[in-house]
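Project standup — Tuesday

K.O.: blocked on the structure for the chain from last sprint. Re-posting the sequence here as requested.
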Amino acid sequence: MIRIVLAILMITGVAAKADTMRLAATTSFNNSGLSDALLPAFKVDTGINVQLLVVGTGQAIRLGQAGDVDAILVHSKAAEEAFVSADFGTHRREIMYNDFVLIGPSADPSRIKDAESAIEVLQLIAATEMTFVSRGDDSGTHKKELMLWSAAKLYPDFFGAWYKAVGAGMGASLNSASGLDAYIMADRASWLNFGNKGGLELLYSGDPMLFNQYAYIPVNSDKHVHVKSEAAQRLEQWLLSARAKNIINNYKINGEALFIFNGAP
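H.V.: unblocked you, prediction finished:
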């Protein structure tokens, strides 16, 4: 009888393990609260539990390269394409988008509110040397920020003490900016869901350069045979479904949508 019970426990244990997959996803996916809206619904529909690893895009890609996760959900197109080109990912599937916004003290000492472009925003902050908090963590947000500084012909390696690279996720970085009454670039979803705004407000948005696309990439099982490619494929198919589209487009805070679905089969 004991042997039968042990056999049943072993079988159910294997089944439970088979019904769990690992997804490395950007911090904004979690900080926004969207993960809590999507992943339980996916489990209800498929029986598959998603173990979420909340990291920046750079770390998510490294986890995928090492085969430590079954798929990644990130937002840095150049890094994603390099990941797929090196055969660490099977393909890149766009799912949804939002935008980056520039946050700062309500007094706006650098006068960015009336800037004509995101590049001008950064030029004004640098010219006035007002405190700016950078995530500094190789995330998708950090990569976008560095791209914008480069486009403005400005280089953080040569900035003074006013530039604070905190090496943290979006929520922690926003907390730092709130405490320092500093400027910061954030994704709109994380900002809307952030509770410790203090004296900060959204000062600038709308430049096409601030477009923020999220993409899903299954890890290549040819590189790592233990990867649960079937579960990763089912999550991809579900993320492209009408049910997921409805959840994404209707996920709002104070009546404002945080993401817009743009996935295609």
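K.O.: great, moving the ticket to review. The chain has two domains: 2-97+213-261, 98-210. The radius of gyration is 20 Å.
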